[in-house]
């Protein structure tokens, strides 16, 4: 066919028309979303950056990650919302901050209903994340509770059953300690000891650390006994354990030098069956700890001051889809909150022990009290008190009394939103 001037002109006009149309799927071309997250959360940030590539290709919007230390994030979120500037579009929120930050987040219920977002895939405590007072302000992103890892081969050899109580764990740890081998290990720095105190105090009773109105429930024999249990348990740990944090104690277990480890699963589970990092490949098991760990949960939300709320919602949906959640868990170690992902056979195959992870999460609790304006300060300062009690610098009774006194002193001049409950949140 000969290319006539008329045909050539038509092709030029058609090309110009198509060039003038926006690219298909580029709904947010030119938008840059600022995603505010926790500083140092390298795996999470790497996961976001990987997902951002497809999101930008699909929508045109670019993602900029801004980091800040955990203890500074609440203040920055509130100040940005109060100013109305909207420096941040998408926010990573520790669910313990709900009482302080939810007023500055965009409600999502209408968007969830409009788009048919499958919120029902979040079960148990995950269903309660980011929904204070029944209003949903975010999408659950990642969460987990502590798990007890143990040497199945050594328990079998010694004829010891997997411990169900703190007393049983203490006795089993003592029995397996000797000749440079340690029955027990977990992070011994003060802030981690306090989390162990929560579990030792609660045990299997379901008792709450605080009443609904904020009265300490641990300044009694049950609280003092929790300190005694931990002091006795740590006698089976390696020398210097009280200076060890998560990486150091994980290495002790991976080196095959301890029988029991209570730990956040995402820190160690991916390494346990890796022969390049572990000497206990195929020799370990996982179970619920004798007392529940606190549920460490994060969700993603939209800043109420954002100027790009539609694009921000699109990004939230993108990173919280079942496919993205699975990718984040397998490739980046970001533990999912979707039940369909946690129970996925491929996840179970790649991360043995997932049944214990799911079970421990179901038995866990969310510490509502940390959402009080003074909650974080009490948490940090009282950790040193727990450490003093566990190491024998104060008596167990003095320890829990000092913790309660500090709380009451901080609470005296503090205020919380009307209807705020300090009681631990659980589904049991």
Q: Which strand order do you get reading across the main beta sheet?
A: 2-1-3-9-4
Report the sheet with the most strands, covering strand number, pairing sense and barrel closure: 5 strands, mixed
Intertermini distance: 77 Å
Q: Which descriptor suits the 3D outline?
A: globular
Which residue ranges are poorly predicted, with pLDDT under 50 across at least 5 consecutive positions? 1-23
Polypeptide structure, described:
The chain is α/β, with parallel strands linked by helices. It has helices at residues 5-20, 42-59, 70-83, 98-101, 109-115, 125-128, 152-158, 166-176, 190-202, 221-233, 246-254, 265-272, 309-320, 322-332, 339-342, 345-350, 354-362, 375-390, 396-412, and strands at residues 32-38, 62-68, 90-94, 138-144, 147-151, 182-185, 258-263, 284-287, 296-302. Strands 2-1-3-9-4 form a five-stranded mixed beta sheet. α9 packs across α18 (375-390). The longest helix has 18 residues, at 42-59. It is globular, with a radius of gyration of 25 Å.
